[in-house]
């Protein structure tokens, strides 16, 4: 039975004490205390110190039982909270603006129920992950052996993860086969020219004009190099150059991100970005310095994992509360790394309250995880672990 008041206390406690990537000592220690109280075996100090891996063996024969892995992320964001909630962040400039406090509370609720369950047909791995927000904590847990059985328990046969979703109604769960969330690559491009007086541009090689042309040309990656029905985003988020209105600078820079839903488009976008930047540099007689930093891969849901999820979800909630046609997002998630190790399914947990059409988005100062979604999340994960 779900002890909701207890889980709400945990969620609010975590919300009040947010810490960003690789600093999640408060959440990690809380998780370890709960697992110790439950008698769940675990390994701590993972992924640069704060990651935790728990293991509950099947009550039948753990050696031959399948192993289901469940993942929750724990980190917060460098955002100052403005919700005004009584349990608002106590740390200035830090808040749980993506709902990871809710994810962690849900997973602890699942652990509590499973630890008290007399018959467990599957081994269960609990991954409490740091640094989802840009730190690649999931990749580190994979590298350290959290899914292959070398660190604790048995190798995972399947893994499931959830995320509170601000465009899905409360009580619903949604997923899909194939690409679910985008890759998150970033780029830096610097054009180096010859500076000089703004009144004598003919004596310069102007990097500002070159950068202006580059910014618009990069949009042709999406508009001219991909199928119109493909999902791809090329965004320049930062532009830097110059010190005064009457000086043409020596250099100018842009910093941006490329998001795709297929590895083919990902490779194409990187190739085209280099070609466009180098071509623009030649055209404007400047030097191009290009840095491409690979980010998270595409989150791809495995057909077998999605099939299992849908079967269990239909049995748990009924068909009217379950969708196999979730809308992919161009946001990224390091859950992608788990899918490279075993069949994976990432799903959306509805957060929009009954009677409302929208709530504040994640990654904003006004976001707060909907407490009413905790019960649905626990029910879904418990059912998956026991299926």
What does this structure look like?
This protein is an alpha/beta fold. The protein has 2 domains: 4-180 and 298-386, Zn peptidases (Aminopeptidase); 185-293, Alpha-Beta Plaits, CATH 3.30.70. The protein is 31% helix and 25% strand. The protein contains 10 helices and 16 strands. The chain has helices at residues 4-16, 25-38, 100-115, 137-143, 207-218, 220-223, 263-283, 303-317, 336-339, 373-386, and strands at 41-46, 51-56, 67-73, 123-129, 158-169, 173-174, 178-181, 185-192, 196-197, 232-241, 247-248, 251-260, 287-293, 299-301, 322-323, 344-352. A hairpin with a 4-residue loop joins strand 1 (41-46) and strand 2. Helix 2 (25-38) packs parallel to helix 3 (100-115), helix 3 (100-115) packs across helix 10 (373-386) and helix 8 crosses helix 10. The longest helix has 21 residues, at 263-283. It starts with a helix and ends with a helix. The relative contact order is 0.19. The mean pLDDT is 97.
């Amino acid at each position: 039975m779900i002890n909701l008041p207890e889980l709400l206390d945990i969620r609010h406690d975590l919300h009040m004490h947010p810490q960003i990537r690789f600093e999640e000592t408060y959440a990690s220690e809380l998780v370890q205390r709960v697992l110790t109280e439950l008698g769940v075996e675990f390994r701590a100090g993972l992924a640069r110190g704060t990651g935790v891996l728990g293991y509950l063996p099947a009550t039948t024969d753990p050696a031959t039982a399948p192993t289901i892995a469940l993942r929750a992320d724990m980190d917060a964001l460098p955002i100052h909270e403005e919700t005004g909630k009584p349990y608002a962040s106590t740390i200035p400039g830090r808040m749980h603006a993506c709902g990871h406090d809710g994810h962690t509370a849900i997973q602890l609720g699942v652990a509590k129920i499973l630890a008290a369950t007399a018959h467990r047909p599957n081994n269960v791995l609990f991954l409490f992950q740091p640094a989802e927000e840009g730190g690649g904590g999931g990749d580190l847990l994979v590298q350290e052996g959290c899914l292959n059985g070398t660190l604790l328990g048995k190798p995972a046969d399947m893994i499931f993860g959830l995320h509170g979703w601000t465009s899905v109604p409360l009580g619903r769960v949604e997923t899909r086969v194939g690409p679910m969330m985008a890759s998150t690559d970033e780029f830096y491009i610097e054009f180096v020219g010859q500076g000089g007086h703004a009144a004598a541009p003919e004596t310069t090689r102007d990097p500002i004009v070159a950068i202006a042309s580059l910014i618009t040309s990069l949009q042709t990656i999406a508009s001219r190099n991909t199928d119109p029905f493909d999902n791809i985003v090329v965004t320049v988020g930062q532009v830097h150059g110059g010190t005064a209105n009457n000086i043409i600078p020596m250099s100018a820079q842009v910093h941006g991100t490329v998001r795709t839903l297929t590895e083919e488009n990902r490779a194409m976008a990187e190739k085209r970005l280099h070609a466009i930047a180098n071509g623009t540099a030649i055209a404007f007689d400047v030097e191009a310095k290009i840095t491409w930093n690979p980010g998270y891969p595409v989150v791809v849901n495995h057909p077998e994992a999605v099939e299992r999820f849908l079967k269990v979800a239909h049995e748990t909630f009924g068909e009217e509360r379950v969708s196999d046609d979730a809308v992919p997002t161009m946001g990224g998630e390091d859950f992608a790394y788990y899918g490279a190790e075993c069949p994976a399914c990432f799903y959306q947990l509805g957060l929009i309250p009954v009677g409302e059409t929208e709530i504040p988005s994640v990654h904003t100062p006004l976001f707060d995880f909907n407490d009413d979604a905790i019960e649905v999340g626990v029910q879904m994960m418990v059912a998956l672990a026991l299926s």
